[in-house]
Batch of 4 targets.
Target 1
Amino acid sequence: MSNVFGILNTGRTALLTQQKAIDVTGHNIANVNTDGYSRQRVNMETNEPYSSQPGQTGTGVRAAEIQRIYDRFLGAQINNENQNLGNWETQKGVLERVEIIFDESSGYGLNQAMSEFWNAWQDLANNPSDYAGRAALLAKSETMTATFNNIYSNLEQIQTDIDTSIMGTVKEINSIAERIAGLNQKIALTEVGGQNANDYRDSRDLLLKELSLKINIDSFENSDGKVTVLVAGGRPLVENISSWNLSTQPDVDSDFQDIAWTDSDGNLVDITDSISGGKLKGWIEARDVTIPDYLSKLDNLAEGIITEVNDLHKAGLGLNDASVAGRNFFAGTTATNMAVDVDDVNNIAAAGSLDGLPGGNSNAIEIANLQNALKMNSDTATFDDYYNSLVSDVGSGVQKATVNFDHQSSMVTHLDNYRESVSGVSLDEEMVNLIKFQHGYNAAARLISVADELLDRVISMV
C-alpha cells in the first residue's frame, strides 16, 4: 500500500540502482585502455507495481542485469581474418630473411661470384701459361663454391629456426587451450546462478583471438556458456572444461617436426597437413614448400655448373703434359657439397690437345663460353638466367607475402576499429553517464530525505 515507508523503499531501490550504475561506469572508465575489454551497462527496469486507487502505483527501479556490449558475429569475423593475418605475417618474415641471403646489392652475392668465375676462365684463356691467372681462377672458384655452400647452409638454418618456432608455438597453443578451458568452468559456474560473467567472457574472447593468430580454429558456444574450439579439420582442442594437447614428433622423411593431436586414448594423430591458417600454417608452408623449392633450384644450378665444367675439364690437359687428363675440376654434386677438386694450378686443364702444350687454351675457351650457353631449363636458359630467375622468384614471394600481409592487417585493423565503435569505452559517453547517474543518485537521496521529514511529521502528530 502507498505510505511513507513505500516512498522510503522507492528511494532506497533508486539509490542502490544508481549506485550500481555508477560502479559499472567506473569499471568502464578504469578499463578504457584494457585490450579486449567490452564496455558494460546496467539495464534498469521498474519494480513490480501494486494495485491501488485510482490505479497501479510503481514501487521504484531495480538493476535487472549488467550487460556486456558485444557483437558475437564480429568477434568470429575477427578471428577468421586473424588466421590469415598470422599466416602471411609469418611467411613475410621468413621470406624477408631469405631475400637477405640472395641479396646482390652488396656485390658479394652468388651472381657476382659466378661472373668472376667465368671471367677468370676467360682471363686464363687469354694467357694460359700465367701462374697468377691460374691461381686467381682457383681463388674465384673457391669463392663461388663457398657462396653456394653458404647460401644453402643459411637456407637450412632458416628451416631449423622455423622448426624451433613451431615447437614453441605448439606449447603456447596448449597453454592458451588450458586457460580457455579454465574460463569455461568459471563462466559456467557464474552464469548458472543467473549472473553475466562479462569480464571472464572478455578474457576468453581475447584468448580466442590470440589462438586464431597461431592456428586455424572453429569455435562455437554451447547453451551453458562453454565454448568448444576445433582445430585441423574438426578435432577438439577445447571442450567443456577439458583441453587436448598438441605435440610435435619427428617426421619420418626429414629432420623436422610434424604436429600431432592427442586423442582421448593417448594416440598421436598427425595433423600437419590439416592446418590451414595462423602462424603455424605460414611456418609449415615456408619450411616444407617454399624453402625446399629454393634449395632444389640452387642444387640444380650447382649440379649444372659442376657437370658441364667437369665434362670439359676431364677432356682437357694440364699446363705441361697430359698426365692430369680425365680429372674433375669440381667435387661434389650439389650446392651443399660443391668444392674445388684441383690442388695444383698446373693441373688446370686449359689446353685441348697435346699440340697446344705447354700453355694451350682451347679448353679454357670452351669452359669460359659455358657462361652464355643454354644449359639450364631443358637447354633454354643460361646459368645466369636460371639464377636470376631464382632471385626473381624470391622477390616475387616477398612481394606477394607483403601485399597479402598488408591487406590482412588492414582488414583486421578495420574490424578492430569497428569492434571498438561497438564495444569500446568512450570516455565522453561515460562522463555523461556518470553525471546522469550522479543526478539520479542525488535525487533519490533527496526523495529519502523528504520521506524522512514526512515520517518525522507523522511521528510528531502521535
Target 2
Amino acid sequence: MTEQKSIWVSIEQADGRIADVSLELTGKARDLADQLGYEVVGLLCGHDVEELAAEVIRHGADRVLLADHPELAHYRTLPYARVAIAEARRRRPEIFLVGGTPNGRDFAPRVASALRCGLTADCTDLQIGDYYLRREDRTYTNLLYQIRPAFGGNLVATIVNPNTRPQMATVREGVMRMPAADASRTGVVERVTPAFEPGDFALEVLSRQVRYSTVRLKDAAVIVSGGAGISDPAEFELLRDLANLLGGEVGGSRAAVDAGMIGRESQVGQTGTTVRPRLYIAAGISGAIQHRAGMDQSSKIIAINTDPNAPMFQIAHYRIVGDAAEVLPLIIKALRERSTDRADAPGAAVGEDEGAAG
C-alpha cells in the first residue's frame, strides 16, 4: 500500500513549549496540503513532550511522529538529524519545512545534505505551482514555490526543486500567520524509535543558560522604527518618546543597528525580526527589500523620508516627505496636546486609551 503524500514540519520545542514558528509553519503546511490533498505531518523530537503533540494537531497537523527519548531532551545536531533522516528516507515526504531559528538553521542543512535534496533558506512566501523545464520539454506539477529575496535584495527569486525529494525550505518566525487552534481537530500520534549511532553523541550538553530579551517586537501593536536617515542618537530618542506615547516598541533597520543606534534584538527585517503590528512608523528608512520583507504585512504603515521616491513610500499607507528630525517633534507635540485636551475634557476617564493605531 502506497503511503499518502505528505508535507512535514519540524516541530521545535524547548522547556515544554513549542516555538511559534513551528506552529506558523504547521498552519501554512495545512493550507498547502489542502490544495494538494496531502497529509500534514509534524516531526516532534524531545523527552517527555507527548502532550505537545495535541497542540500540533490543533494547529493543523494530521499526524505527529513523536521521537521521545532522554537523549533528545535538548537539541543536538546529530541525534535530532538522525531521527529526521531515517524517517524521511522511510516515508519520503514531498515537502519538509523547518523554522529559520538558530537550531533550525543548524538542523536543516545537515538533513538536506544527507537526503541529497535542495534547501532554500529564509523564504518569505511558499506557494504551489507548476514549472516547465525547457531542456526536457516537460512540465512539473504541484511544485513548492520557495520565494525569497536574492542578490542583496535587488530581486525576489522563486526557487523550485523538480528532481529530488523532499523539497526543503526554512522560514523565519513571523513570516507566516499563526493559525487559530482548533480544539475539535483530531489526528494520529505515532511513536518512532530512534536508531542512534555512537558518533551521534560526540557533543555533550553540560549546562544551559537562557537569556530572555525584554524586547518584544513580534507582539507589539505599534512599532516606531528608525533607519539610516536618523544618524544622531538624540534624534533616535525621539523615536522612543513617540513609541512611549503610543504604547509601542522601538525598532530599527539594519543600517541603524550597524550604526550603533539600537541593539540587534530590535532589528526589523529579513535578517532581524518579522513583525505584523497594527501600526508601523518608518522614520528615515529608505525601504530596502530586506527591511520591507520583515514589516510589509503591517496593518497601517506611516513612512517619513526626505526622498519622495524612497521605496518605503511604495507600501506606505501614509507618506510624509520631510526630515524625520523635524517631523517627529511635531507628531509628538500633537499627541501630547491631544492627550492633555482629552484629560481636561468633562467625564474623561483616567488612563483612557482609544488604541494607538485607531
Target 3
Amino acid sequence: MFTHIAIHSPKPEYRDEVLASMHRVDAAAVGAAGLIQIGPWQEIEGGRLIGLAIWESREHFMAAAPAIFAAVGDDPFDVWEDRPIESFQLEPAP
C-alpha cells in the first residue's frame, strides 16, 4: 500500500480555484491502475485543503502520476497558494 498526500494552503480568495484543481486531479486519476481511493479533504479548523490518494503500490502511483498531474500543469499555484504545496509519499512502517 502507498499513500500520497498533498497539503494546499490556498489564499482565501482562491480556495474555490484550488479545490476545482484538486477535483481535476481526481477526475484524471479515475480508472488508473492500482488506485484505491482519491479525493480532497478540508481542515476542520483552518483553511488548508488536503489531497489524499491511496494506491496499491508506489509503482502504480509513479506510473500514473505524469498523466494525472498534467491535468493541472498550467494551474497558477504560485498565485493561488500562500506557500508551496507540501507533498508526502508514505508507506506502512514495518
Target 4
Amino acid sequence: MKITFKLLSLLGAMAVAFAAHAQEQKVVIGMTGPLSGANAFAGKDNENGVRLAIEELNAKKITVAGKALKFELQSEDDQCDPKSGVQVAQKLMDGGVKFVMGPYCSGVAVPASRIYNEGGAMLSTVGTNPKVTQGGYKNLFRIIASDNQIGASMAGYAAKTLNMKTVAVVDDRTAFGQGVAQEFTKEAQRLGLKVVGQEFTTDKATDFTAILTSLKGKAPEAIFFGGYAPQAGPMVRQMKQLAFKAKLLGGDTLCSPEMGKLGGDAVNDVVFCAQGGSILDKTASGPAFKAKFKKRFGLDADVYAAPFFDQTMLIGESIQKANSLDPDKVGAEIYKASYKGIMGTYSYDDKGNMKQAPVTVYTFKNSAPVPLASY
C-alpha cells in the first residue's frame, strides 16, 4: 500500500509538472553585438543588461493567452562588422526570433535593420547614426540619444562651458564615427567655433602620430574624435607623448571605463565625452541597479547596460499589455507608452526616436569617467 501510494503521488506530481510545462511558452530575445574583438567589452555589457532583465521578467511570471512565458536569451556576435551583422540578422530571422536587442554599432544597425524589418521582428538598438531610424521601419526603436543630440551637445559644451574657439575633427570612417563627427562639426560651426583641421583614420588603427603631428601645427584647443575607445585610448596617449596640449572630445563610445584602461593617466581632465542618458548615480533607481548588476556579474555596469535592461523590461511589460507576442501589437503598446526606466522615461516618436533623450557630459578622473552635467 505504501509503495502504491508513493507511486501514485509521484505520477501525480509528474502529471502536474507536465501540465505546467505544456502551458509554458518560450520567448527568445535575440541579442546582437560585438562579443569578440576590440569592442567586446561593450557587447558583453549590453548582453548582461538584457540578461538581467530577462531574469527579472521570468520572475514576474508573465502570461499571454493563459500560457506562462519563459524568456530566453540568444546572443550572437556581429563583431561590429556590417557583413557579419547582416548574417547574424538572417540567422535570427531564420530561427523565428521576433524581439532583438542591438546592434551596438551604427554600421551594423543600418544594413541589418532591413533584414529584421523583412522578418517581421522588433529591433531595439543603441546605433546613434541618424540613418538608423530613417528607413521607415515601424518596429525599430533607438533607445538612447542620436548623433544629432550627442554631437551637438559636445559642441555646445566646448563652446559655452570650455570657452573654446578652435577645434579639429578626426573620424574613423565608420557610420557611427562619421555621423557623430558631422553633427559635431555642424553645431560647432553654427556656434562660431573654427574648425582648423579635419582628418580621418580607421577603426583598426593604433598609430595616430602622423595625424596628430599635422594637427598640432594648427594649434586647435581640442580634437573631436568620431570613433571608438580602442582607437581613442592610444590616440590620447600619443597626444601626451607629443606634448599636444589639446583636449580630446568624443561621443558616447569614449565615456567608458575601457577608455581609462587604454588611455591610462593621459585621459585625466583631457578627455570629455557626451553620452546618451542621465547620470546613473543621480537617477532614483540608478544606485540600486548598479549594485544589483555588480552582484550578478561581478562587473560594473558600463555605458549601455541600463538602457538595454530598460528596453527589455518595457518589451516584457508591453507583451503583457498586448496579451500577444505579435511584434506589431507589442510595438503599438510601446508607441503608446511612457515607461519610467533606470535611465529615464522611454517614450518614442513615430520614427522610433526617443522624444526626450537626455545627454550627460563626462570627463575622467583617476582614469575613470566622472559625470559633469546632464542636458
